[in-house]
Design brief:
There is one protein chain. With 319 residues, the chain is mostly helical. It is built from twelve helices and two strands. A two-stranded parallel sheet has the order 1-2. Helix 3 packs parallel to helix 12 and helix 4 runs antiparallel to helix 5. The protein starts with 15 loop residues before the first strand and ends with a helix.
């Protein structure tokens, strides 16, 4: 009778692995990656896209193994991990640059930082709010993709954090706009900020509920609806002050581009395009989830550009 080979030398009979399984006791090993069918059997909580037919990590039983997998070898979560880990690092570096008065990264429209108006404490608070929300979202997303093949409990907790991070980024992108869009109108500022915060809390409750958490389109539509909640206050500004004001004082074009980036990426993710059209062709690179991550980064940049534009608009209004 032929001998059955384990997935990796030192692996357990149930397919689980720890970082210290080789003879030297070092973590420098690479497990045999699994097919979709194998992963569905051994790591079902981290396997839900039948169009990604291979490249799955086995069940890694500790966090150190998961962390090593992020840099030690290529698998079908590598791009997902690093698109958002690098994005989180970028926005984290931008935070101190915007709270120090002598450092202001400029948009292409402004050739010199000297042309930018001085920042008030509230300007800095708005920037800090956005950067913290962006780092939170991207960091939690990267963490989830890193540990998704760990225990079911670890994956489930990280997945909840991933959903909360998306809500945090959407709300954090909208709230500063309420301050600038209704500058000098504290009642409207407060009403719209409270409304957006309530919509964010409701969205978090929905996507964290056991029923909706397991339905991809339910989650996607909830996130899209939360993002579209910005249409009401932005529409209010357009109707009250005109489209020209919205463009010149709020960076309306950047807001629209950011929202379109988020929505387009989310729809591709929910529809699983392109891998649903060519199963197995995008196991490592180019899958819908990876494309979605790139559109999230693009959208976050557009939202940042809009926020910088609003800062200038506020200064012009006060001049």
């Amino acid at each position: 009778m032929p001998e059955t080979k384990p997935l990796l030398s030192g692996s357990n009979s149930n397919g689980t692995h720890s970082a210290k399984t080789n003879k030297t006791g070092k973590t420098g090993w690479k497990p045999r990656l699994l097919s979709f069918e194998e992963s569905r059997r051994l790591v079902p909580w981290a396997t839900d896209n039948e169009y990604i037919t291979g490249g799955y990590r086995p069940h890694l039983v500790n966090i150190s193994s998961c962390l090593y997998s992020a840099i030690g070898y290529v698998h079908n979560e590598t791009v997902n991990i690093h698109t958002h880990s690098l994005g989180a690092a970028f926005w984290a570096l931008m935070l101190p640059l915007h709270i120090l008065p002598s450092h202001f990264p400029t948009l292409g429209t402004f050739p010199s930082a000297a042309l930018l108006p001085p920042s008030t404490l509230i300007d800095k608070a708005c920037m800090a709010c956005y950067f913290v929300c962006a780092v939170t979202c991207l960091g939690l997303s990267s963490w989830f993709h890193t540990v998704s093949c760990c225990t079911h409990e670890v994956c489930d907790l990280a997945h909840c954090g991933d959903y909360v991070g998306i809500v945090v980024l959407i709300v954090g992108s909208i709230l500063p706009g309420m301050y600038y869009g209704f500058h000098g109108q504290p009642l409207l500022q407060g009403l719209y900020m409270a409304g957006i915060a309530a919509a964010g809390a409701t969205s978090a409750y929905i996507v964290l509920s056991p029923h909706h958490r397991n339905h991809r389109w339910d989650r996607t539509l909830t996130f899209i609806a939360l993002g579209l909640s910005a249409v009401l206050p932005v529409g209010h500004v357009v109707l009250a002050r005109g489209l020209t004001y919205a463009r010149e004082m709020m960076g309306f074009s950047y807001i629209a581009a950011g929202g379109a980036s988020y929505i387009f990426g989310a729809v591709l993710y929910a529809a699983r395009i392109p891998e649903s059209l060519w199963p197995g062709k995008f196991n490592y690179f180019g899958s819908s989830h990876q494309i979605f991550h790139c559109f999230v980064l693009l959208g976050s940049w557009f939202q940042f550009a809009a926020l910088r534009w609003m800062h200038v608009g506020r200064a012009l209004a006060d001049a």
